[in-house]
Amino acid sequence: MIGNLAWFATIHPLILLGYVGLLAFFFAKVEIHIEGPHGWAEKLPTWRIENHWLLRVLWGGRALTGYHAWMFSFMALFFLLPMFLSGRFTWPLLSRCVGSLLIFWTLEDFLWFVLNPAWGAYTFFRREVPWHRHYVLGLPHDYWIHLTVGTILLWLSFR
After folding, report:
1. Is position 63 within any domain?
2. How many whole angstroms separate alpha carbon 54 and alpha carbon 69?
3. CB 112 within 8 A of CB 120
4. Residue 74 lies in a domain
5. Which end of the chain is more exposed for a tag (fewer CB within 10 A), N or C?
6. Alpha helices, H only, 36-140
7. Residue 121 belongs to domain spanning
8. How far is it, in rounded angstroms, from Cα 20 to Cα 26?
9. What is the rounded CA–CA span in Å between residue 159 and residue 156?
10. Buried b (16+ CB within 10 A) or exposed e, 113-149
11. Helix (H/G/I), strand (E/B), else coil: 102
């Protein structure tokens, strides 16, 4: 270790959040290029399950697509990578990985709208998004759940 890096511990959570935000920005741009103006894989050549009671309970009533099933699985594995790189499994590290993933998905989804020329923040805040069916205080209810649970998990991981 070079010098005293105790100061890093105080800003580590902010650096992590900044990095998660950067990942969300880049992945939102990738998804914009993949999906274009047609969100939720509407025009992609993939399978879709439109109606199932589990989708209403776990998925906010949105369709489950092959694209999203594989993409969400890939990103979950990606965010768990630090445990495999370090060869250590700890509850705080798992909490940090999962908390970061939840915050990532919220930021990525929001950035998809803000950065997508076909949508923009105005359309998003007018609640004209067909696959976000439930809103609380002007935002999709998923955002509140993911941000709350993600923040709690990150806070616990840094204690």
Report:
1. no
2. 14
3. no
4. no
5. N
6. 53-58, 66-79, 81-86, 91-115, 120-125
7. 6-41+80-157
8. 10
9. 5
10. beebeebeeeebeeeebeebeeeeeebbebbeebbee
11. helix
| Residue 59: CA count within 13 A, CB half-sphere | 18
**Paired tokens of 109:** 């989804």
Q: Tokens standing for 15?
A: 């650096």
pLDDT digits (tens, 9 = 90+) for 90-137: 999 999 999 999 999 999 999 999 999 999 988 888 777 888 888 889
Q: What is the pTM of this model?
A: 0.91
Domain count, the chain: 1
Whole-number Å distance between alpha carbons of 139 and 130: 13
CA dihedral sign, ordered 41, 126, 118, 102? negative
For 64-77, the pLDDT digits (tens) are 999 999 999 999 99
Residue 72 in domain: no
Q: Give me the residue label for tokens 């908390």.
A: 99
Give the phi and the psi of residue 139 in degrees, each rounded to 5. -125, 150
Residue 2, pLDDT score: 53
